[in-house]
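A protein record in our archive is deliberately plain, so that people and models can read it alike. The record that follows is passed on verbatim for readers who wish to inspect the format.
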Amino acid sequence: MTEYADRVRVAEAAARAGAAVAAEGFRTGIAIEEKGQKTDVVTQADRDAQRAVIERIREAFPDDAIVGEEDDELKAVPASGPAWVIDPIDGTNNYVRDIPVWATSVAAVVDGEPVAAANVMPALSDCYTAGPDGARLNGSELSVSEADDPDRFVICPTIWWDFDRRDEYARACEVIVERFGDMRRFGCAQAVLGMVAAGSLEATITNVDPNPWDTVAGVYLVRQAGGTVTDLEGERWTHESQGLVASNGTRHDEVLAAARDVEKIRMS
């Protein structure tokens, strides 16, 4: 029994509750709304799933702060005290295109540091969880890839570059195929971080400043599975960091160098 066992259980229960609601609308032709940009979309399922997540959290921790992507929840992680960071559907663009790579994400943090996480992907029947005793996928313990040959690495450029930053996206693809064995892109940051934790990918990179609901749970998964997550300076990643570089740790400096090459485009 760990100090944060209750938060681990609630994170999973809340993520499962939200995922069940979202799954009801998947592949049903649900109406799509744009949140300001053509690639930034939302559905009623996002809102309904977020309410289900919050209801489950409030049953156990009624006074905790909640940071969430939709509606009027907080948009920044509090520096002190307990809080929850939630994304009802991470990968909404996949969701509305009937692609099954999307997740309901819930993380518990204390004083800004994650202590529990759950990413539930109902269309794939997968549930990633993490707590102080490690990371798991469907109950089985996770460990990052042991690969140390960059020619065998599979890397994902994640966190979307907006239309005015597509040169950075192009550079990310270029540096990955120049330096590493192969590249994938999935359109769901939490799924990608889970894949790094599970050893399916060796790393993921972005120089974009990510939102906490897209990253906090997955970063905790990677770390609890033995991986390394830093900012673009190579410092330990936090929810306030610039960029995100997550890897299995064997060649993190080389993965970090690739991310910095992308950032040079923005700075030029």
